[in-house]
């Protein structure tokens, strides 16, 4: 027989049993879930610390901070000029006219004017290059001339011997060709015929140009990409009279004398034409037809 339960416990058990038999009561819950929309976050507007750029610069100066000015222009380096200023005009035939004639007197007067301008230019060159001497320059110019022509097939050193104005003229149309050039001898000593100085952009940017007369004996042969001779001959030397212009950027402390161009007088003889390699077209054949001409006859027809 079970022991009797107290009165209080029996009432509690009856109450709990009644609650356990009742359906579950659902209560409504509220939760805030952030949902991302298309509106983006816009930062709050703050008042600027400095009202203007002038106020910012003044406060920086008071604080001891120096702001360098921002320059929009970029530096430009002009290593050479774009041409020959006051080009030397050689007399026709490179011979002097008698001073007793009218043409000879005019030629002598013109030569005196050019000599005065050359002397003034020499003084200006010596202000930048104290070692410049007219007597020693022709030999130096001849060495630069020979070295530049020997480097035609090797463009690595040609920029140090020729200016940016002369470089395209020297290497034009020799990309797929072989140039064989050699210096044989000097028929006459090289001499300076004209000296000029000029400035570009401003008066402090000075360039010097010296025109040297060279009468030499050279050999030249140009071969195409197939090894066929196009111009000249390697074993036949020719006498060449040239007026070569050398230029130096005097303002540049590391500048050097380089070839700048050549003066070709109007009375110079025409150059030998270049022999170009072309393909000789053969007979027109129909589709599926072969050329029955023997190889020997085709070779003789090409030679004819």
Q: What is the tally of helical segments?
A: 6
Outline: flat
Distance between the termini: 147 Å
Unreliable residue runs: none
Notes on the protein architecture:
Component of the mitochondrial large ribosomal subunit (mt-LSU). Within the mitochondrial ribosomes, required to direct the nascent polypeptide toward the tunnel exit and position the exit at a distance from the membrane surface. Its main location: mitochondrion. There is one protein chain. The chain has about 300 residues and is α+β, with helices and mostly antiparallel strands. The protein has a domain at about 90-265: Nuclear Transport Factor 2, Chain: A (Roll), CATH 3.10.450.240. It contains six helices and four strands. Strands 1-2-3-4 form a four-stranded antiparallel sheet. β1 (about 180-200) and β2 (about 205-225) form a beta hairpin. The mean pLDDT is about 80.
Quick take:
This protein is α+β, with helices and mostly antiparallel strands and 304 residues long.
Keywords:
alpha+beta; Nuclear Transport Factor 2, Chain: A; 4-stranded antiparallel β-sheet; flat
SSE layout and pairing:
Blueprint: H1 7-20, H2 53-63, H3 102-128, H4 137-150, H5 167-171, E1 178-199, E2 206-223, E3 229-249, E4 258-263, H6 295-303
Antiparallel strand pairs: 1-2, 2-3, 3-4
């Amino acid at each position: 027989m079970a022991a009797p339960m107290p009165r209080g416990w029996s009432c509690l058990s009856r109450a709990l049993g009644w609650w356990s038999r009742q359906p579950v009561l659902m209560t409504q819950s509220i939760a805030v879930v952030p949902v991302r929309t298309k509106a983006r976050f816009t930062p709050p507007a703050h008042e600027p610390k400095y009202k203007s750029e002038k106020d910012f610069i003044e406060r920086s100066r008071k604080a001891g901070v120096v702001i360098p000015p921002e320059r929009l222009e970029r530096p430009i380096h002009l290593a050479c000029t774009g041409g020959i200023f006051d080009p030397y005009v050689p007399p026709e035939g490179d011979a002097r006219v008698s001073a007793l004639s009218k043409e000879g007197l005019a030629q002598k007067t013109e030569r005196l004017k050019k000599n005065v301008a050359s002397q003034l230019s020499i003084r200006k060159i010596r202000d930048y290059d104290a070692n410049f001497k007219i007597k020693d320059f022709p030999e130096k110019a001849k060495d630069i001339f020979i070295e530049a022509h020997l480097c035609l097939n090797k463009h690595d050193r040609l920029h140090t011997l020729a200016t940016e104005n002369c470089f395209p003229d020297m290497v034009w149309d020799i990309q797929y060709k072989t140039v064989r050039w050699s210096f044989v001898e000097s028929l006459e000593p090289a001499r300076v015929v004209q000296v000029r100085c000029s400035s570009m952009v401003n008066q402090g940017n000075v360039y010097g140009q010296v025109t040297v007369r060279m009468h030499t004996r050279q050999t030249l042969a140009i071969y195409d990409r197939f090894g066929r001779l196009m111009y000249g001959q390697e074993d036949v030397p020719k006498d060449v009279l040239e007026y070569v212009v050398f230029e130096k950027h005097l303002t540049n402390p590391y500048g050097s004398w380089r070839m700048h161009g050549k003066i070709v007088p109007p009375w110079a003889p025409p150059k030998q034409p270049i022999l170009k390699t072309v393909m000789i077209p053969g007979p027109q054949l129909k589709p599926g037809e072969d050329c029955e001409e023997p190889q020997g006859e085709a070779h003789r027809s090409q030679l004819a």
